[in-house]
């Protein structure tokens, strides 16, 4: 399969996916037809990596999460081991004063772990899940474009946290995220802010009895 390398940065900034395919991809044999359809084709080429990363995260949520390998699943670890690993990881990242500010964001880590697991589990290759997690999280291609190499250098994950712990750490981060997300209560009579109207002083008038005319009162809302 032929590869196309884009050196001209102006092309990346100004072209859409559709325009780039039509002008620079001569053999379209291996291209999916949906790339030329709206709204995908109208995406600017400079956002193609962001799109790819979003697709990876979606693949994890819809496919890999439910088919995660036994060796990575939380049931492969004891409760005490899971909680210790998750707490240890959070202390080295989210609660670490020496780490770059961007890594104190839960969403940043959650997205990275989803992409990491997709890249590890999608290819049919043998992965050493006993490897140090630190070696993988320090790869620049694991992070979004706003993360710099200087930011990555501030990450220090202890060697006893392994690649096999990636999934349980992800679940621990997601659980923490749910704790931080406030749950809005629907408006209903069961809501504590709802007050039942007080009808104790209301005089019930029979339908066949004409009501007495009350004097007109000025609407306080009017000027």
The rounded Rg comes to: 29 Å
Order of helices and strands: HHHHHHHH
**Secondary-structure class:** mainly alpha
Separate helix tally: 8
Unreliable residue stretches: 186-192, 202-223
The overall number of domains is 2
What is the molecular shape? globular
Strand count, sense and closure of the main sheet? none
Hey, roughly how much beta strand do the residues contain?
Answer: under 5%
Helical content, roughly?
Answer: 25-40%
Average pLDDT, rounded to a whole number, is 78
Number of strands: 0
Termini separation (Å)?
77 Å
Report on the architecture of this protein.
- This protein has helices at 9-14, 17-24, 48-62, 79-92, 106-121, 133-137, 149-152, 166-180.
- With 223 residues, the protein is mainly α.
- It folds into two domains: 1-43, no CATH class; 67-180, no CATH class.
- Residues 186-192 and 202-223 have low confidence and may be disordered.
- The longest helix has 16 residues, at 106-121.
SSE blueprint and pairings:
Elements: H1 9-14, H2 17-24, H3 48-62, H4 79-92, H5 106-121, H6 133-137, H7 149-152, H8 166-180
Key structural traits:
223 residues, mainly alpha, 2 domains, 8 helices, 37% helix, globular, disordered C terminus
Summarize the structure.
The protein is mostly helical and 223 residues long. Helices cover 37% and strands 0% of the residues.
């Amino acid at each position: 399969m032929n590869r196309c390398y884009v050196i001209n940065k102006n092309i990346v900034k100004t072209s859409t996916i559709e325009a780039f395919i039509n002008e620079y991809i001569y053999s379209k044999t291996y291209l999916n037809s949906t790339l030329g359809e709206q709204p995908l084709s109208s995406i600017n080429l400079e956002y193609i990596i962001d799109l790819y990363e979003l697709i990876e995260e979606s693949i994890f949520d819809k496919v890999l999460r439910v088919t995660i390998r036994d060796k990575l699943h939380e049931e492969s670890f004891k409760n005490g081991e899971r909680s210790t690993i998750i707490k240890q990881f959070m202390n080295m990242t989210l609660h670490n004063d020496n780490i770059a500010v961007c890594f104190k964001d839960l969403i940043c880590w959650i997205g990275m772990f989803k992409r990491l697991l997709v890249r590890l589990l999608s290819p049919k290759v043998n992965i050493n899940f006993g490897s140090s997690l630190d070696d993988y999280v320090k790869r620049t291609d694991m992070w979004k474009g706003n993360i710099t190499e200087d930011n990555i250098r501030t990450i220090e994950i202890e060697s006893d946290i392994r690649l096999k712990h990636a999934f349980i750490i992800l679940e621990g981060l997601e659980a923490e995220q749910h704790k931080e997300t406030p749950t809005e209560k629907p408006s209903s009579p069961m809501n504590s802010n709802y007050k039942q109207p007080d009808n104790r002083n209301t005089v019930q008038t029979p339908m066949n009895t004409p009501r007495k005319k009350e004097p007109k009162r000025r609407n306080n809302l009017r000027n």
